[in-house]
Amino acid sequence: MSTTVPVNPPSRATTLPLPPGPRGYPLVGVLPYLRRDPLRLLTAVQRRYGDVVKLGDQRMFFVTRPEHIQNILHASERRYNKGPLLSKLRAGLGDGLLTSEGDHWRRQRRLMQPAFHRQRLAHFGAIMSGAAEELCADWQPRAAHGEPINVAAAMMGLTLTIVSRALFSHDTSNDAEIIRRSLNIALPITERRFWSFINMPERAPTPDNIRFRRAIAAIDDVVFRIIAARRRSDVDQGDLLAMLLQARDEETGAQMSDQQLRDEVITLLLAGHDTTANLLSWTFYLLSRHPSVESKVYAEVSAVLGGRTPAVADLASLPYTRMVIDEVLRLYPPAWIIGRSPIAEEQLGGYRIPANALVLISPYVTHRHPEFWPNPEGFDPERFSPEMQDARPRYAYFPFGGGPRICIGNNFALMEAHLILATVIQRYRLDLIPGYPAPPRPMVTLHAGNGVWMLLHPR
Ligand code: HEM
Q1: CB 338 within 8 A of CB 64
Q2: Residue 5 has pLDDT above 50, yes or no
Q3: Ligand 1 atom, smallest distance to 333 CA
Q4: In terms of CB atoms within 10 Å, which of 28, 45, 54, 343 comes out highest?
């Protein structure tokens, strides 16, 4: 007989009080504040009301304590589903891994997990540092003329190139260009929809909806064409798409349909570039503001590589560079907000959370929780030395989420950021241009508001 005890036994708590929190305005509650400056609002309510907060009269709650976050993220989907926060991405992503639920999600995750195994990902290291070297070469004439570069835009381009090559290595650059242009149209529209209170039907012929549909149709065209060509060919290209095409459900032996492949490819294109680009933009931003850390990274990288392009095998010898990335993910976690919805009433920290409420969790706020992070605003990579990491609760830090829905691309992203930083820092010192502030702009992911404008100094 099994002796396994459920990690998170459900708890019913109808008699418990609702948590405290700001009431906000009648009808709309705190939504106007949340829309205007969500990072400020959420940080302030944690400081004022504590770790389980009710936001306005809406059925919206905010949870910041590591053990509560663990309870929610590790709960089975019979207790919590992903709720409404990500549903606005469904129009573009369809039923891909990020937006699907239930049996469909479980089956897809099982099929895709092996493609993201660390050993299989090592294969993509050369694509990552190769693309970073190409970018450094492209920058040369502009650096020579002292021309300012928007590093945020450059990182978006670089990470999209990398995930496109990892997905469909040998396909034409013309297709990649169509995808790039279409995503550049679809993404800002998705971001506008994300925080909109008025849910205009997506079929309504508004200019945004029309442009969005056209952009998605153009991506679909490319993706379905590539899938059809691959199905006709016997050659294993060794890329992510090949792995997805070959994946067979270990229980049923079934493979993915064209529609499932399309939804997963678009999900990986989107989830696989925007987040990592933001991480890299914030990395160069913070290094420029902390020259002593920058010098330490440069010293480590040049001692290990001596100017050579980094390979995956070098990463273990670059631990400080990795600690820097971990600290950037603490201060500017690209996935700054995560949502869940309890199926039935739940209790957290002695409070009642009603069924179907929206429960918000924010890596941005918990990563600055004063109880777990001394000097929370300070940029200090030493926090990620092994001893200091061991001293913190697991969910004081969760830039990739956790539990069954943890980011499938976390190793891909960390390897990519590590390789790109090690490549670029050997070629250039990047300096922020004074007078171009980069306020964080929390959309679906955490962007730098005005881009990150920098001057490049060749080494
Ligand atoms: C710094 C980079 C990244 C960050 C911070 C990040 C963060 C996250 C987080 C927090 C989640 C969980 C969301 C939730 O629980 O609701 C997630 C899910 C996901 N991420 Fe990432 N991600 C990154 C890079 C990537 C990359 C490179 C890929 C693919 C190549 C990727 C693909 C996905 C997918 C498919 C999911 C959904 C997984 C599932 O629900 O089974 N991500 N990511």
Answers
A1: no
A2: no
A3: 5
A4: 54
Higher per-residue confidence, 190 vs 265: 265
Per DSSP, the residues of 142-186 read HHHTT--EEHHHHHHHHHHHHHHHHHSTTS-HHHHHHHHHHHHHH
Pull the structure tokens for residue 175.
């297709």
Q: 62 is written with which tokens?
A: 């905010």
**Residue 220 parent element (H or E):** helix 207-232
Between the alpha carbon of residue 452 and those of residues 272, 407, 408, 438, the distances in Å are: 20, 26, 28, 6
pLDDT at 12 (0 to 100): 53
Q: Which two tokens stand for residue 296?
A: 């330490």
Residue nearest to atom 30 of ligand 1 (CA): 272
Q: Rounded to an integer, what distance in angstroms lies between the CA atom of residue 413 and that of residue 420?
A: 10
**For residues 54 and 30, is the Cβ–Cβ distance under 8 A?**
no
Mean per-residue pLDDT for 53-60?
88
Ligand 1 atom with least separation from CA of 159: 27
User: Can you list the alpha helix ranges (DSSP code H) found in 233-356?
Assistant: 240-246, 258-271, 274-289, 291-305, 319-331
Q: How far is the CA of 82 from the centre of ligand 1 (A)?
A: 13
Place 196 in a pLDDT band, splitting at 50, 70 and 90.
low
Helix pair angle (319-331, 410-427), 10° resolution:
110
Pairing status of strand 149-150 against strand 351-353: unpaired
Predicted TM-score (pTM) of the model is 0.93
The predicted-structure confidence for 326-374, as pLDDT tens digits, reads as follows 999 999 999 999 999 999 999 999 999 999 999 999 999 999 999 999 9
d(CA 435, CA 246): 51
Characterize the bridge pairing of strands 358-361 and 60-63.
Answer: parallel
CA 409–ligand 1 middle distance (angstroms)? 6
> Largest alpha-carbon pair distance within the chain?
73
Six token digits for residue 396? 């004081």
Beta bridge partners of 430: 456
**For residue 99, pLDDT beyond 80:** yes
Best mutation site among 407, 414, 420 for ligand 1, i.e. most ligand atoms within 8 A of its Cβ? Answer: 407
The packing angle between helices 274-289 and 151-167, to 10°, is 140
Neighbours of 360 (CB within 10 A): 22
Q: Which atom of ligand 1 is nearest to the CA of 267?
A: 35
Q: Which residue ranges make up each domain of the chain?
A: 102-327+409-458
pLDDT of residue 168: 84
Mean pLDDT for 129-145 is 96
CATH of segment(s) 102-327+409-458: 1.10.630.10
Q: What spacing in Å lies between the alpha carbon of 270 and ligand 1's midpoint?
A: 10
The residue ranges of DSSP E strands in 204-342, in sequence order, are 338-342
Q: Whose CA is nearest to atom 31 of ligand 1?
A: 409
